[in-house]
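From the pipeline queue, job 12 of 40. The input is one protein chain; the requested action is below.

Action: predict structure.
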Amino acid sequence: QVQLVESGGGLVQAGGSLRLSCAASGSIFSINYMGWYRQAPGKQRELVAEITSGGSTNYAGSVKGRFTISRDNAKKTVYLQMNSLKPEDTAVYYCNAHVTTVQAMGTMFSFWGQGTQVTVSS
């Protein structure tokens, strides 16, 4: 019904940069919230950054000043620019979106992408 597909993960040295993308497709009427989360081995999934349809953003303290979230509403895509990467940023990064579908207008559903691996070497 709705698919979120992430891309842009990979292996990078500490201090390097990566840009993640997450494209939404399917029977979408509107997308309100979009966010990036991450989960490192043995740890719980945590919020990295989030953005509303109006462009308001929020960041985890550990990434503030290094990561930037943005979105292209026309393309139904959210981005995460990650600079000054650290080994502790190593995790699987997941995209999340709160979507109103064409089939169920008036109801918002939460969808997740499949995740993309980010590995930062020291």
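Job complete. Residues 66 and 110 are 27 Å apart (CA to CA).
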